[in-house]
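Figure S4 source data
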Amino acid sequence: MAPIINNLPSDNLPADVDYPMEADPIKTATDPIAGYQFGRYQIMGADRQMWIEDPSTPMCPVEPSLLDIMAMITAFKRGQPTWYIEYDRIWDPPFRILVDLERMDLPTTGHYHQFTICKESTNKGRRPVPNHHDLFTGPGVLVVALMYRADGPMWSDIAIAQYKTRFPIDTLRHIYIDNCTNSETEPLVTMLMGGPQDAWYGITPQQSKIQVPTVFDYGTPSYQAILGSATGKAVAALILGAFPRGTWRIAKIACWYYWGINMRFDIEPVPQPSLYTKP
């Protein structure tokens, strides 16, 4: 019997297994599978959409995040690399997202805590580049300026733990990805925004200069495709790790080009069924 994906029979692998990607992310996205405009990306994104919204959806691999950021940093094992704090300061957010912060009526200067931590990789043969996470937190806002994991906790767990050191997690409303360079997500978002057609990644110079976002609404094929790419899956893991399933969801995804692809994931409560019944 074929496995079930999104409650529909499928001949593909179970949803909790990452599908092998083509070397070319665009080829992966433009290779449709029956019922899915953006193929494997959309399938994986649709699964994450359902895991987040419906706690009865099976095979969700993400558990509630219990990471304590200070305990992680101060933990010491003889002979093993340890975490060190590069920045721990009040600082302005990255310049690429300033216009969008203003557009969303969010603080732009002097209200963000920059927290940057690093650790050498324990697997120097396979992934010798250090772990490096650069996060900004403000009221209702988490900005991911750098996320590189060679080993250790997932960056989504680190982001949750760091936000919780400053604010209650249920105040989080916006997650920004500054200058997304992921080799899977960046070309996919570029394509969904209309490119690449020229040096402006398919959008006009006028749009780029004023940083007009392209908005992908909840549940659309493009939304699901982004959620099924590497960066989208990580943000979905953050939501699944931070909140009980079925309580908060990613309402929409906004993307724009300004010195790179920038992204904003907006969070909202999951609409609950009305308790009113017609007499």
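Figure S5 source data
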Amino acid sequence: MLEGPPPRGVGSPPDMTKRILPGGLPMIAAAALILLLTHSPTAAFGQLPGGGGSDPSSFNPALLQLFGGAKAFSGRVNLRVTDQGNKETMRTPMTLVYLENKVRVEVNLGDMVQATLPPQAIAMFKQAGMDQVTSILRPDRKQAIICFPAAKIYTQEGMSPSDLDAFNSTYDVKFQEIGNESLEGHPCTKCKFTVGSSSGKTMQGTVWRATDLKNFPVRIQVPAPDSTLEMTFKEIKTARPEAAQFEAPGGFKRFDNMEKLMTERMSSILGGGAPQPRK
């Protein structure tokens, strides 16, 4: 049984535990909730310089400026986070889908390798049918959706002001070519980049731009204050994805917020078996 708050890791601000811990929720369920919010891959995105925040739905739209104005794309992504000593602290495959400023990220927590994530936390999510997570950002509607397909449940809440400000900012992107390399079977131009926003925030890093895919960024590396995030794309598609992928799922039970969802789900497990998903 987990005792006390989990170890702090990528995307875990000092006041996170106090902010999200639901009163009366058993400690193991509360710990699982904290782990979901602070160790999810999209929380890592939000911790990049210029990002919106550490919520599980956070995604730094400054990254989108590296895709050369593409209106639509999708692909499998290998996400890695390393610490200041270049030691890997998180690694996970995921799917990223983009359509005209709408973002969808799919991840299976069972595939995630996380240095500070206890195995029993992943086992609890799997028992609850919550190991598969889909995050959808709709800045056009100011909405964030977090869906658990196996359990047929989801939350739909308003995006935070900081996330909305990041999506609504204007950006200036500068590239400095530093070499040429082949990566994932694509000839690439390796560049240093700087993305500046109208809010005054900047993000710098290195990008490998595939010359055979209209400079699609096959790999992106971005240093943050205490870590470095690396994204490597595979199975890249530039076809327009279906708009339905960015809608709340039909036939799923909706919760007003993540605390209510986790309280019901985990209490049901601890009380003797997870509730059955809605047909």
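The longest strand covers residues 171-183. The two ends are 32 Å apart (CA to CA).
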